[in-house]
Model the fold of this input.
Amino acid sequence: MSDRNAWIIDGFLDVRGDHLHIDGVAAVSLAEKYGSPLFVYSESRIRHNIERIAAVANVIPFSLKLCYAAKAMPTLGILRAVKNAGVDIEVNSGGELWKALKAGFTGPQIIFNGTSKEVWEIELAIKSGIYAIQVDSLFELSLIEETARRLKKRASVSLRLVPEIESGTHSGLQTALLTSKFGMMPDEAFEGFRKYKDSPHLDLCGIHLHIGSQNPDPKVYAEALEKLFICLAVIYGESGVKVRHVNLGGGFPVNYLRDNSQERDIPPEQRAMFSASVDPVDAIANAWATIEPIVNLSELNRELAADLMLLLEPGRSIIADAGVCLTTVRNKKERRLSKHAKGKVDDWLLTDAGFNLLLSQETYKWYYHMISASRAGEPHKTKYKLAGPLCDGGDVYFDIEGENRLPDHRLLPKNVEVGELLALLNCGAYSLSQASQYNGRGLPAVVLIRADGKPNLIRKRDTLEDLIAGEI
Ligand SMILES: Cc1ncc(COP(=O)(O)O)c(C=O)c1O
Done:
């Protein structure tokens, strides 16, 4: 059996002289220079991930518009890296829209989602001439029409559907069920098309859905595309509107358990989700193969499909495995497993990265594989209990609720001491974007290793002054 660690990705994550290297740069040297905790991203990996998804264009008869879901990681340096790789953007608030414009995206490159849009956000979207506002309800559609009328403009809108598709992901990440808070039922969308088909202030250009994030089963994309195509025909039949795009949202999963050394410690249903490996090309090729016969059923269907554009909004699959969180052991202790467990003790390691940085670890019991950055080549077979720095009993790397959704212990080299640098892999998505200054812990610095191998600081570590910025 090879002793090669399964998390290694040649040229991106390597072990050299026992040290973890990211794009050829020693993680330890980055932490020495920029401090800990630290997020490190790889531009080459971002590009690799984008190319993998962009290849979907080769298996569909439509044009493809890829819009990076900014919510996954919206630091300007990352937005620019994504933009330079040729991808457009999906935003979820006026704030993200503003950041997208700041990063250099033009209006036609932007789509805007969200359940609770305010008038100023709608105004900004309309004035910026964005590609589509994705409409969450009939109420919102009327608000957008009213706003566009007041501005004497025309808003491009795409109606978001909630088509009741079960995706097998974490319940908090399912977004196409009627029990979710998103979108409108197909009948409501049809009503919207009927009502506003002749409005000079609305361009009803698309229909949209997002099934969920980290969808382990590629078949949901076929189900979703089929539902969207059925809707196209109804919309045309009832309103005469020929929709120009269908948007399948994001949700391609990332294999968080590529290194399977701890997978036995995770229950089967969680394991299936974390280890899902879905190739976007296969998923969409299969989706198209499923609906092609429906499209070919009639001249009308073929006409509706002609000149159609497919939109995708991937976030996680672009950025999750391109980001590593470096964290330092700041404290250690030994503790008996229970009052009655004679002699047996747990070795506890307390790091400087808790749910202030990795919120999903606490809320969704998300698994991030952990290795030693300075002894990455040594066997990782010793068990430790891991916890973060927060004054909160839930700030631990195991399942505090006792439901074993996370491993109870993490495997690291022998004799881990205070000061050792650890690396949490696949931490690029929904981490810093959800981070907080809880417990007076400033947000960390972020380094992007450019495609030419040079590390660039793209976010400074918060100063103490940043902890009170905005306070009066
Ligand atoms: C509407 C919408 N689009 C796209 C995404 C991105 O999903 P993912 O990061 O799983 O690709 C999300 C995230 O939940 C979303 O809500």
